[in-house]
Amino acid sequence: MQKYNSEVRILVCDISEILDSDLLIKNTAFALNYNVVPPVPTVCRAGEKPFSRLFYIKQGSMEFYTLDKKEKILTAAEGSVLYLPCDFEYYSEWKSGAPGAYETVLFTLWEDGEHIELSDGVSLFVSPEENGFEENFADLRKVWLAGAPGYRLEFKARVCLLLKAIALSKMKKEVKAKYKSIYKGIMHIENNYLEDTCIEELAGMCHVSTSTFRRLFVEYKGETPIKYRNILRLKRAEELLKSGEYTVSEAAEASAIPDVAYFSKLFKKVIGISPSEIKK
Question: How far does Cα 181 stand from its chain's mean position?
Fold first, then answer.
């Protein structure tokens, strides 16, 4: 496992931000314990854990404190998925009762040579009430323990899928909590941005007026629905052009903006450079 370099810059980003990021996953591993006898106190000090963890409590519950145990950080019940950042100091113990059980995924995230953390402290990523990720952890466990040829690549791929699922779940939960009245329209754009769904149809999905839908959407994204949809299309086109497998006209067609002149003008305005420059 690669040793953590404390001189590497650490960037903290919200997990929902990773959906549009080109991240590299390193130092992956899997660990489990199905017979934890409480309280089993754990002290984690700086430099001792050169990796981040997604920690799934299969049975029992835990309490996390600051290292000096003067302040409780959180209590995590059975079914919770926690994020434990690299190099973060804390004290934890299992609450009394039945034996505890956990599964944990170890990894580090990187982008452009910078170490990425998804929180600056112990965080509850998934509560027991919303947990639908037991199958993801079961798949990771199966791949890791089997150790078949290519298992590390498959394990990394499944870690990516788990992070994506958690990020999408968090994004949907936040959107639904704040913009419940237009939630269906928002998710339709996010999932079907290549379709030419008009704002009247989007508003109709949500049973609100077009003016209300537009106003709330601008409040949510800072852009009109159509402009935001075009941004998603252009980001997709940028990925296609960077692959080197698409001409400008092919990328324009594939991103549902077939008018090449208009596509090029819009691309430069949003992305900052012309599509032909990316091809170079």
Answer: 24
DSSP string, the chain: -PPP-TTS-EEE--GGGGGG---EEEEEEEEEEEEE-S---EEE-TTS--SEEEEEEEES-EEEE-TTSSSEEEEE-TT-EEEE-TT--EEEEEPSSSPEEEEEEEEEEEETTEEEES-SS-EEEE-GGG---HHHHHHHHHHHHH--TTHHHHHHHHHHHHHHHHHHHHHHHHHHHH-GGGHHHHHHHHH-TTS---HHHHHHHHTS-HHHHHHHHHHHHSS-HHHHHHHHHHHHHHHHHHHTS--HHHHHHHTT---HHHHHHHHHHHHSS-HHHHH-
Is 66 exposed, middle or buried (CB count within 10 Å of its CB: 0-12, 13-18, 19+)?
middle
| Tens-digit pLDDT profile for residues 236-264 | 999 999 999 999 999 999 999 999 999 99
Pairing state of beta strands 123-126 and 90-94?
Answer: unpaired
Q: Are 84 and 122 in contact (CB under 8 A)?
A: yes
The Cα–Cα gap between 160 and 107 comes to 10
pTM (2 d.p.): 0.81
Closest Cα partner for 118 from 67, 170, 158, 73?
170
**Structural contact between residues 205 and 243, judged by C-beta atoms closer than 8 angstroms:** no
- Two tokens, residue 92: 């934890």
Give the Cα separation of 207 and 216 in Å (integer).
13
Per-residue tokens: 195? 């379709």
Q: What is the pLDDT of residues 110-143, one digit of tens each?
A: 988 888 899 889 999 999 988 689 999 999 999 9
